[in-house]
Design a protein that fits this description.
The chain folds into two domains: about 280 residues, Glycoside hydrolase 38, N terminal domain (7-stranded beta/alpha barrel, Alpha-Beta Barrel); about 110 residues, Up-down Bundle (immunoglobulin/albumin-binding domain-like), CATH 1.20.1430.10. The protein is built from 19 helices and ten strands. Helix 1 links the parallel strand 1 and strand 2. The two termini are about 45 Å apart.
């Protein structure tokens, strides 16, 4: 194999908040998981497996957040996903009959039936409902590097005043990773790429060897690296930890609303779904039982020209041709970029292209196909660069530049505005008080041998972790399902305080503890003592 001029690291961040409601037979927000399984996780598993079968060499990096893994491994949610996909198969069969006089729509309906049926087969037969184990097989095969994330995707800069709370988010995530993948994670995706000075020391103590950050985190460092974002750096106060930064140019090709590939007029339109468009009497069995219209995943229209308000019908073959063209364009641009960079660097440049995994398939329907085309073209159509992972790159080219990166995040503005603003600032005084009380309890009850106290303390820790999820603040800022996010946050705070008061009053209610354990059952092996800083 020839030595490449540089490397491309594609990193997919897969995360969803922990949503599981055994007390209800239907919850609209659980659909976020089912949609992602059907449109993103199963297609990615299928294409990666096909690439291995075809002998195509490739390397991909994915973060699988602990909350997402917990949901994918949860039997109740697995059962509910099967019910979900069965209903979609039934709806697709109905759609084939309904669209029989429109050839274009009918072809699309058949394609949906084939997709849903294949998803059910892959989920139940190939992976026996264990999608996390499916991703582990890819890691064991050497093509996928799985990194962790904070335990519940808590936004770490906003809890920086309590180092034990930050450390617990990371240590619990590391232990959860070990339990699932049988080894320690080398890397971590910091939630929302949120970094503050000193965080690297906690990562180092938890055995993390690299992380990702937003571009300006490196470019605005105390000593900005000469290689910019195209080589990792070592943290000044934690030399064992390296940081990779996002390349804005490669991200723009996929993310930009104006320049990005997903805006091509031939791709499927996300915002026009039969769940909103068809007669209520027909669609009612397949939407929210309360009569709330939701996306079903069956969509017949394409993005179309921005200046044409009438959406044209979607043609799958044309869309896939465009995906192949866009994959070629991406490869061509990365070749030119790497050739230009390699002439002035002391090591092969690495272009880090991180994306939310759910972009591929859920938001951009043809995204998994684009990624499949891209990987094949990288292997067969050029020899300028190789696909790599951060671990592989560090093993070949250890970090040399030392600096302290700047406070940073991704998202609008790049400095935490999404997760601390006028819509969600009210949350943080409550969180800070809970974090302080959790540390207090961990110290006070560190040596307890009382089984009920231990259960209560472990559940208090779970309630805090779930309240810390950055998803609630994000939802409040974006204005989507705000009522749900607010309710979830308040419920976890209230549960924490109730248990805390019972603990301090020496009147623990075992039935109440059991109820919370059954509803918020994440991290079954958690040990509250982690908040003491002494474990």
């Amino acid at each position: 194999m020839t030595t490449p001029a540089g490397y491309l690291c594609i990193a997919l961040h897969a995360h969803l908040p922990y949503i599981r409601h055994p007390e209800k037979y239907y919850t609209m927000e659980e659909n976020w998981l089912y949609e992602a399984i059907t449109e993103t996780y199963i297609p990615l598993l299928a294409y990666f497996s096909n690439l291995i079968d075809d002998g195509i060499p490739f390397k991909i990096t994915m973060s699988l957040s602990p909350t997402l893994c917990a949901m994918l491994d949860n039997k109740l949610l697995q059962d509910r996903y099967v019910n979900h996909i069965d209903r979609l198969i039934e709806l697709a069969e109905n759609e084939i009959r309904r669209t029989r006089y429109n050839r274009t729509m009918n072809r699309t309906a058949y394609a949906y039936l084939e997709r849903f049926s294949l998803c059910k087969h892959i989920f139940e037969e190939k992976y026996e409902r264990g999608l996390v184990a499916g991703f582990k097989k890819l890691q064991d095969a050497g093509v996928l590097e799985i990194v962790t994330c904070a335990a519940t995707h808590g936004y770490l800069p906003n809890m920086r005043d309590n180092a034990n709370a930050v450390r617990a988010q990371i240590e619990i995530a590391v232990q959860s990773y070990i339990d699932r993948f049988g080894q320690k994670p080398r890397g971590i995706w910091l939630p929302e790429c949120g970094y503050y000075q000193g965080l690297e020391n906690i990562l180092d103590k938890c055995g993390i060897r690299y992380t990702f950050m937003e571009s300006h985190g490196l470019l605005n460092a105390d000593y900005p690296p000469a290689s910019g974002v195209f080589a990792p750096v070592k943290f000044r106060d934690a030399h064992n930890v390296s940081a990779f930064a996002r390349d804005a140019e490669s991200s723009r090709s996929v993310w930009s609303a104006d320049e990005g590939y997903p805006g091509d007029p031939h791709y499927r339109e996300f915002y026009k779904d039969i769940g909103h468009d068809l007669d209520m009497r027909y669609i009612a069995p397949y939407i929210d039982p309360a009569g709330i219209r939701i996306n079903t995943g069956i969509k017949y229209h394409r993005v179309t020209n921005k200046h044409d308000p009438a959406k044209q019908l979607y043609n799958r073959e044309n869309a896939l041709r465009r995906a192949s063209v866009h994959a070629s364009d991406f490869v061509y641009k990365r070749e030119a970029q790497i050739k230009n960079l390699s002439a002035s660097m002391d090591r092969p440049p690495i272009i880090v292209a991180p994306y939310d995994a759910e972009l591929f398939g859920h938001w951009w329907y043809e995204g998994p196909e684009w990624l499949n085309f891209l990987i094949r073209k990288c292997a067969q159509k050029q020899n300028t660069f190789h696909l790599t992972t951060p671990s592989e790159y560090l093993d070949r080219h250890p970090s040399s530049h030392i600096c302290t990166p700047a406070f940073s995040s991704w998202g609008d503005g790049g400095y935490s505005h999404i997760w601390l603003n006028e819509t969600n600032e009210w949350m943080y005084p409550h969180l800070h008080r809970l974090e302080d009380r959790m540390v207090e309890c961990a110290g006070e009850y560190y040596h307890t041998s009382n089984a009920l106290e231990t259960r209560a303390l472990n559940q208090i820790a779970r309630e805090l972790l779930l309240a810390q999820s950055s998803d609630w603040a994000f939802i409040m800022k974006t204005g989507t399902t705000v009522e749900y996010a607010t309710r979830r946050f308040k419920e976890h705070v209230a549960s924490f305080l109730s248990l805390y008061d019972q603990l301090k009053g020496h009147n623990l209610d075992e039935s109440f503890i059991a109820l919370l354990e059954s509803h918020n059952d994440i991290f079954p092996n958690i040990d509250f003592r982690i908040y003491s800083g002494s474990t």
